[in-house]
Structures are given as structure tokens and as C-alpha cells.
Amino acid sequence: MASAARPAVGEAAGERGSTGAADVTGVLVLGCCAGWALITAAGREARPEGVLLALLAVAAGYACGRIGGAVLPVAVPACAAITGAALAYAAPYGLPGVAVDPPPGHTGAHAALFALASGAACCSAWAARSPAARLCLRLPAVAIAGAALAAGSPAGCVAAAVVLLCSLAAAPMRRHRATGLAGLALAGTVVAGVAWAVAQDVLPTGLAVSLEGQLTERRVLLWHDAAALAAGNPVLGTGPDRFGDLSPAAQGITSSGGKPHSAVLQLAAEQGLPGLLLLSAASLWLLHSLWRSPRSTQVVLTAGAALTVVAAVASVGNALSFAPVTAGAGFLAGLATARPLGAAHGPTDAEPGADTESAAGPDAEPRVTAGPLHAAPSSLPGSNPLSRGHVDWEPAGSLDP
User: Fold this and answer.
1) What pLDDT does residue 109 have?
2) Can you tell me the distance from the alpha carbon of 397 to that of 399, in angstroms, rounded to the nearest whole number?
3) pLDDT band of 95, cuts 50, 70, 90
4) HEC profile for 102-170?
5) Are the C-beta atoms of residues 338 and 344 closer than 8 Å to each other?
6) Which of 152, 200, 240, 398 gives the lowest tally of CB atoms within 10 Å of its CB?
7) DSSP class per residue in 307-332
8) Helix axes 75-90, 131-150, angle to 10 degrees
9) Residues 250 and 243: beta-carbon distance below 8 Å
10) Residue 266: per-residue pLDDT
């Protein structure tokens, strides 16, 4: 019987090893992003400080999320949700440092903060065990959407509501984690692809005119310049933070802040094709980390939905130029991939009696460790197998006659 415990120990060690490998991969990807920014800035009047600070904010937020999600998986995200919503509501135009005449990207940054706050509140609700506690913890998510509307940010209200609806829709998808993550990845890719198509002016005339009306003409002009710079410098780009110096549209639009207001187009213009590939590698690493996360599928998909909303907003706005947004995105990713202290192999918020997901993967079948014939061991002295060090039970069907 003692040997029966060895597979479980091996599975736990394998899962810890997989998590450690994923963390090392993430460090390498972020390190490559920082290194490439320095390479593209070498020998030019470029300013890579903004990229390095954004990467630092993501890494710091991710570390804090992993720690907070491990120690207090319910309280920490709830407090983070309230803090993020208060910051978005109280700061001028949603974020500190924004001019009185807000640039085109400020609306997206505002919406991204409210989406992250709503995602944190929903993650806190799914981490709670009792239905009553989950209901109470979802109320702040509803209040966040209302606060966004009261703050004069319809985009923030829509973003928070979308995250809340996606979180509720994740309830029946417990055994379909990969499908849910694939759908979220597809949604983010479609938004980025549409932005690229608008910049390249390859869409049909009617659709292009309709989108230009929604995006505003000056934003489309910035995108056209970014696409032209990317085509002229496909490998090294123009250098970090040099778009404003080389774009005629940015020089004519004083409120642009020297940014194309699209993370995808900004990387393509300033860091070339390798910059886009590194961004894709970071996205794939995040998807893999969420898929391998020990947290429940509901928590994972909720965080994935919030991060997808942020990615979509960043594809058509300037959200990632603000440290609260990048740090908040890293924090939420850390929460969704943290292992709560003392948790079993399965999700920490599984209902009593529910099947748990094994360490072999989110869709693996549960491993049976007890049989009904052994549910009531003898009460005679010395007859309890637990007193002799037996920790695993053979299934009832495997007993010899």
C-alpha cells in the first residue's frame, strides 16, 4: 500500500517542475523583449526607457499577483479590484499624467483599468467556496461597471460589463479550459488584425469608412504612418519612442503624445518584425501559463477575458503607455496562475464532492483513490489502516475474492 502513494508524489513534483519551467520561460521572454529594445535603440536618438519601465511594471505586478493569490486568493483580488476602480474613478480623466485635452488613447486606458478591476472582483468571487460569498463578491463587479458610467467612461462601463458576462459564462466550461482560452486568443487576434488591416488600407471601402468613423480620422492617420515606417524598417524598426519624431501625422496632432495609439503598430514601427514576434511569444507564454494554472477554470477564464479586453483596447489605443494598466495586467495574470498555499492538486474553489482537475492537465480524468467498501474502517484498537501509515486505499472493485 505504501507504494500507492508514490504516483501522487510524483505528479505533484512534476507539476511543480512544469510551473517552474513556465516561470523560467516567462523570464526569458521578458528578458528578450528588454534586450531587443536596447538593441533597436543602439546608435540612435531613441529612448527605450518607456519600454523597459513597462516590462518592469508587468514583472512586478505579476510577482505581486502570484504572492497575493497564493496567500489570500479571495481577499487580495477583492482589495485590488476596489483599488483599481477607485484609481480609475478618482484620477483626472481616469489616469494620472493625462493632459486637460485628453489624447486619443486616454479613453482606452480608462476602459482597461475598469476591465482589470472587474476581472479581479470576479476572480475573487470564483475563489470563494460558498455560493452566498460568491454572490456578495460579484456585487463589486456590478458596482465597478456603474462607477465607470458615473465617471463618464461608457467604454469603461462596456469593458467591465463584458468581463462580468464572460466570467458568468465560464461557469459551465469547467472541463473546456483549452476551448475557452482559444476563443479568447482568437478574439484578441481578430482585433489586432483589423487594426493592422486599417493601417494598411486593405479593407473594403464601405467597411473602412465605417471603422474610420468609429476610430476617428486622426487615429487612422497615425496608423498609416506607423505602417509606412514599419514597411521601411522591417528588421530594426525606427527605434523605441521615435515615432513622434518621424511621423508627419504625429507632428501635426499635438495631442497624440508622439504615439500611434496601437501597441501592435507601435512595436512594428519602432522595433520591427522581431518586436512583433516577441509580443506574440509573450502572449503564447501567458496562454500556456493560464492553461497549466492550478486555479479553477472559472478563475482562469475570467482573468483571460479581462486580459483579452485589455489587449483589444491596446490594439486600438494607448492603454499600455500607462504604468497602472501594465502593472494591473501583470497582477491579474499572476493571480490567475498562483497556487494557493495548502491547496490540493485540483482547483481551490471546487464545490464539495465535485471532481477535481488533475495535475496532468486541465481536461484529464480524475484519479480514484478510495472505494465505497473502505468508507467505514473498523473502530477496533489497532485495526485502523491509518494508524499503520496507510494513506491510500485500493478501489473496492480491485479486491481479490
Assistant:
1) 86
2) 6
3) low
4) CCCCHHHHHHHHHHHHHHHHHHHHHHCCCHHHHHHHHHHHHHHHHHHHHCCCHHHHHHHHHHHHHHHHC
5) no
6) 398
7) HHHHHHHHHSS-GGGSHHHHHHHHHH
8) 10
9) yes
10) 94
Taking the C-alpha atoms of residue 290 and residue 389, their distance in angstroms, rounded to an integer, is: 36
362 in Cβ contact with 313 (< 8 Å): no
- The residue type found at 329 is A
pLDDT tens, position by position, 57-76:
999 999 999 999 999 999 99
- Tens of pLDDT, residues 204-214: 888 888 888 88
DSSP string, 327-393: HHHHHHHHHHH---TT--SS-TTPPTT-----TT-TTPPPPP---GGGSS---STT--GGGGT----
| Kind plus residue range of the DSSP H or E element containing 400 | none
Give the H or E element holding residue 31: helix 6-41
Residue with cell 486622426: 218
Give kind and range of the element (H or E) at residue 51: helix 49-71
> Phi-psi region for residue 120, left (φ > 0), alpha (ψ -120 to 50) or beta?
alpha
**C-alpha dist (Å) from residue 334 to 61, 96, 234:** 7, 24, 33
The whole-angstrom separation of Cα 27 and Cα 201 is 37
Measured distance CA(279)–CA(267) in Å, rounded: 8
Q: Residue 95 in 3-state DSSP?
A: coil
* Residue 310, all three cell numbers: 485589455
- Reference 107, options 117, 118, 91, 93; nearest CA is 93
- Give the pLDDT of residue 91: 67
